Amino acid sequence: MSAVARKEIAGYFKSPIAYVLIGVYILIISIFFHPALNAGYGDFVEVLDDVGVFLIFIIPILTMRILAEDKKNGTEVLLLTSPTSLPKIVIGKFLATFTVFLVIVGISFIYPIVVVLFEGAITTQLVGAYIGFILLGAAFCSIGVFCSSLTENQIIAAIISLVILFGMWIADQFAATVGGLAGAIMEWISVLTRYGVFTKGLLTMENIIFFVSFTAMMLYMTVRVIERRRWVQG
Amino acid sequence: MIEIKNLVKKYGQVVAVNDISFKVKEGEILGFLGPNGAGKSTTMNIITGYLPSTSGTVEVDGYDITTHPEQVKKRIGYLPEQPPLYKDMTVTEYLNFVSDLKKAPRNKRKSELSDIMELVGLTDHRKRLIDNLSKGYRQRVGLAQALIGNPKVLILDEPTVGLDPKQIVEIRRVIKGLASDRTIILSTHILPEVSMICERVVIINKGQIAAEDTPDRLSNNLSGVSKLNLTVKGDKDKVLKTIGNIPNIKYITMTTKSEESVYKYVLETKNNVDIREELFFRMADNKMPIIELKPSAATLEDIFISVVSNAGITQTEEE
User: Fold this and answer.
1) What is the C-alpha to C-alpha distance for residues B195 and B203, in angstroms, rounded to an integer?
2) Residue B160 scores a pLDDT above 70
3) Residues whose CB is less than 8 angstroms from the CB of residue B229 and which lie 6 or more positions away in sequence, other chains included
């Protein structure tokens, strides 16, 4: 598990991809933080609330190659014939993507520190927002990993995860229109609403469990997809 | 060491491997032969646990691949047809990663890797990116990867494919060197390779075992007749007539004219009767000098073609 994770993390930082994604995302955060600074109130919670949506574009690019590339290059054989079990391989891959995301989180934390230096404070609301942001990132990474297992084409993997993430983001907008059970499900799965609860500073057990179990379920489904493909393909 | 029983693999309606059973003893090198698409790679993928079988069992060192996959995988080093390489890594990085993946002990890591690299001839290339290596060297990295963790069993799928003649000789030497304390299954469709390296051969065709024996016994059994290549100087009609008078000859074919009034003939005799002496004296009596006389055993090519073109199963029998 750690072997796979370490190798993938090293891979991200050996190529430009991690730097570009981290750079772009930090730029987005900075742009959103800029007006708050100008106005003289350094409320970073609002920034986190605003930039969450951009993960929809960043995460698929981060995760698209994580399993698709192994399938395409034939290195999947090496992983699957090694004495490391498939769930551990998938978790290792997930942890690698999540680590890159955590680097983003870590760098973004510069801004709250700047605020503190200028006589602001780190509020419990900010802590809650960060926990929500990290959980959101984990869930998104797990979706990306899952989509990468579906195909050997990285672009297709990225597009599928983008569509799924986008669908989940806006699901609650249409929940009322759809109505009934489907509407209820859309309401339930809408990450925007759930993420919003965190950025309001509310740590509810329900939402934490939702994100954690959602991530676990996506990884479990990833394992199932790879298992199933072993049975049907040559 | 390896025991395969009634192995079947279906892809939908297509039967890739159809009821294959064979055993490989400890320390044996088994050649796994067959035309393209015969099911060699599929069988190897099942033995190594990459693909599940439709039915049948595979046991390695007493462990079943479906019930104890990790125990089996620990004991196998696998070089698939396409070496599973990460091209953005250097040779050392890659081999270190594989060591981690195979949970090879860390304390002996350095000496193990340098031994392996020395063995397959990668020491000078250890710092290079795999992407920049030639096909032959990538193949060596693939072989090195299979050797990590000192597995008891090596499964090598066409290990010499794509190499230049010098590299082929080297890799074969390496494989033979490895054989002393390991069990090896090696697939190939290069036939001389089999007679050079392998102690036993399993020929599969259309997913079924078509023949199974030692390379030598296979060629003896199949031939039944022995062939002689003969080159004689003299008028071809006279030569043919003289040869024709010798008993026990099945048939004669004249192949080519090599020099002025020198012709090549191929003789086939019945039941391994040796006619070489008689041939010599009769030709001498008739003042027709034999330029060359060479017996030719059936080559593995002949066996392969004859076995593979027989649609049914022809088990060679022990005499």
Assistant:
1) 13
2) yes
3) B264, B265, B266, B292, B293, B294, B295, B296
Q: pTM for the full model?
A: 0.83
Q: Phi, psi (5° rounding) for residue B56? A: 95, 165
- Predicted confidence (pLDDT) at residue A189 exceeds the cutoff of 90: no
Contact B34, B205 (CB under 8 A): yes
ipTM of predicted assembly, 2 dp: 0.88
**Residue B317's pLDDT band (cuts 50, 70, 90):** very low
Residues B308/B205, Cβ–Cβ less than 8 Å? yes
B210-233 tens-digit pLDDT: 888 887 777 665 555 567 788 888
**Taking a C-beta distance cutoff of 8 angstroms, is the pair B21, B55 a contact?**
no
Between residues B236 and B200, the one the model is more confident about: B200
Write out pLDDT tens, residues A78-124.
999 999 899 999 999 999 999 999 999 999 988 888 888 877 777 88
**Considering only CB atoms, which chain A residues are within 8 Å of B102?**
82-83
* Pairwise CB contact (< 8 Å): A14 & B86: no
Q: Which residues of A touch B69 (CB under 8 A)?
A: 85
Residues listed for chain A:
234
- Do the Cβ atoms of B102 and A82 come within 8 Å? yes
Compute the distance between CA of residue B98 and CA of residue B128 in angstroms, rounded to an integer: 17
Residue B312 has pLDDT above 50, yes or no: no
Torsion of CA A220, A225, A231, A233, to 10 degrees: -160
SS (H, E, C) A116-163: HHCCCCCCHHHHHHHHHHHHHHHHHHHHHHHHHHHCCCHHHHHHHHHH
A85 Cβ under 8 Å from any chain B Cβ? yes
* CA-closest candidate to residue A232, choices B208, B45, B51: B51
Q: In this complex, do A2 and B100 lie within 8 Å of one another by their Cβ atoms?
A: yes
In this structure, chain B runs to a length of 319
